[in-house]
Amino acid sequence: MATGGFDYLVLGGGVAGCVLAGRLTERNGLRVGLVEGGPDHGPGREGWPGGLRDARLLPRDEVWDGDGPPYRLRGKVLGGSSSVNGCWHTWGAPGDFAEWAALGGPHLCAGALEPYRLRAVRAMGLREVPDGELTAWATASLAAAAELGYPEIADMAALGPPRGAGRPPINAAGHERVNAAQAYLRRDRPGLEIMAGALADRLVIERGRVTGVRVIRGGVAETLRAERYLLTAGTYGSPGVLLRSGVGPADDLRRLGIEVALDLPAVGANLIDHPSRTLRLAPSPGLTAALRAQEEADGLYPSQVAIKAGSAACPPGTWDLHLLPIAGAPLFGTLPPGHYEVGVTAFLMKPRSRGRVSIPSADPAAPPIIEPGFLTDPGGHDRTALGDGLRLAGELAATGPLRTRASPAGPPSAAVGTYWHPVGTCAMGPGDSRDAVVDGHGKVHGLSGLWIADASIMPSIPRCNTQLPTLALAELLAEAFLGQRTSPGA
Ligand SMILES: Cc1cc2nc3c(=O)[nH]c(=O)nc-3n(C[C@H](O)[C@H](O)[C@H](O)COP(=O)(O)OP(=O)(O)OC[C@H]3O[C@@H](n4cnc5c(N)ncnc54)[C@H](O)[C@@H]3O)c2cc1C
Predict the structure, then answer these.
(1) Closest Cα to atom 20, ligand 1: which residue?
(2) What's domain 2-92+178-271+422-481's architecture?
(3) How far is the C-alpha of 92 from the C-alpha of 234, rounded, in Å?
(4) Residue 263: helix, strand or coil by DSSP?
(5) CA of residue 16 relative to chain centroid, distance
(6) What is the pTM of this model?
């Protein structure tokens, strides 16, 4: 069966997909189909399951690969990972966006992105975290950071001082998560058709042009057709759709028995994520009692403070670490009610290691192969810099405000965690580069009619949480499609 008539088909209803579908249907007369592999819980927050509504939780319902290693987690529901994530917003340094601009064009530099960042901040309804909402551990952590000389940063979601401590604003109304679907999609717009529970399998490519997409809904395959196709299935999902379509490293595709439509070696390569290690602490009876009282009164956010810090290798004037004081129910494993995991987690924000996403077969139901590549850079920079992060976490824990509330609980865990910020597997860059999949407006090199607009197109990782940069990039690309400033090409 073939269904046509769309101006745009947006493939993946996550953060970027909701921005694009929302903004494009603001233009009267445009018909936009939004294809999402997970469910849609409707327009109002009241229809959403409790776990997905509570901004204090990182729910494991409605995720891809929920039983796998933690780095595989990502939302499988309308709103994508914004429906299951930590609701934090921070912003990068000018140098991060200069890296993008060097590969994608000057519209990606920090100054040019500013209006789109602001648009996203407004649309997501970001709010500050008032003193009264801070846990006893978060309050003490701000005092600890001040004791070490970190200045307080007023707005963590904007360009700001390179080092310091602050409270990232959150996309929550009260304690209710406002995900990208709720923030961007207006169901009453006649041009918008949401297709939930619909898996984008592969693109139909004819003579270098995308002319359809094979979608599986309720076990039935159909081909949807549009003028333009926008791939927004995320850093793990978008390369999968391309590879199943025969777009990727030709040798790998042949090995899988997939007919090669276009040899694009960079598809799935260049996976970058922020790795972490945690300094675990044993909370004092006083801290445990305070956390218990706060949990009973108002619930607990596991972390509310981020400190921008620098490893020994980090040049002055910027940062390459986030230190996050954490206190709450364990993210993994369990503790008896009324007991809490406490510590300081160090995240490496400019890692040099690179991983890879590939597929085991052409079967769209087969989970992707994800090799995060944490701490594998040949020079060992990442391991050393993250070690510096743990040392700085130890300095924080040794300050007066923290050491009176928690004591060392043995050596830091050797396990490497993640901030859940994968990017880079469909990286932007010039058309003659073997490292590039798309240009600076998300247009796929060598194919007509296809753009990618999600976190996968970031060629390097910004030193911040990735939701706000994804929102801002999608805002920029949506405006380009609407033809207000720049033309996104054919
Ligand atoms: C647990 C967790 C915590 C996080 N915490 C934060 C945080 O606090 N702050 C922050 O800034 N960032 C956070 N992030 C990262 C942030 O959520 C991502 O950077 C952002 O969601 C990326 O947007 P995206 O559009 O690229 O992908 P996503 O939002 O993941 O959207 C991809 C969408 O595509 C759908 N999809 C995938 N494949 C297919 C297919 N074949 N067919 C149809 N649909 C498909 C998915 O179901 C999903 O809805 C977190 C992420 C996770 C997983």
Answers:
(1) 467
(2) 3-Layer(bba) Sandwich (3.50)
(3) 20
(4) strand
(5) 10
(6) 0.97
pLDDT grade for 4, boundaries at 50, 70 and 90 = low
Tell me the mean pLDDT in the region 192-219. 97
**φ, ψ of residue 408 in degrees (nearest 5):** -55, 140
Cα 136 from Cα 283, distance rounded (Å): 11
Ligand 1: atom nearest CA of 78 is 49
- The binding-site residues of ligand 1, defined as CB within 6 angstroms of any ligand atom, are 11-17, 35-38, 58, 73-76, 80-82, 84-89, 199-200, 232-235, 237, 241, 420-421, 454-455, 465-468, 470
From 432, 365, 412, select the one nearest 216 (Cα to Cα). 365
The string of pLDDT tens digits covering residues 423-438 is 999 999 999 999 999 9
Q: Is 322 in contact with 276 (CB distance < 8 Å)?
A: no
Q: Is the CATH number 3.40.50.150 carried by domain 128-168+274-352+371-418?
A: no
Which long-range contacts (C-beta less than 8 Å, at least 24 apart) are formed by 245-254?
245/202, 245/203, 245/205, 246/202, 246/205, 247/203, 247/205, 247/444, 247/447, 252/358
Contacts of 293-296 with C-beta under 8 Å, sequence gap 24+, read: 294/135, 294/136, 295/338
DSSP 372-402: --TT--TT-HHHHHHHHHHHHHHHHHTSHHH
Q: Which residue has 């809490």 as its token pair?
A: 340
pLDDT tens for residues 305-340? Answer: 999 999 999 999 999 999 999 999 988 888 999 999
| CA-201 nearest atom, ligand 1 | 41
Residue 294 and residue 288: Cα distance in Å, rounded?
Answer: 10
* Cβ atoms within 10 Å of 314's Cβ, excluding its own: 19
Residues 6+ apart with CB under 8 A from 289: none
**Range 242-262 average pLDDT:** 98
Domain boundaries, the chain: 2-92+178-271+422-481, 128-168+274-352+371-418
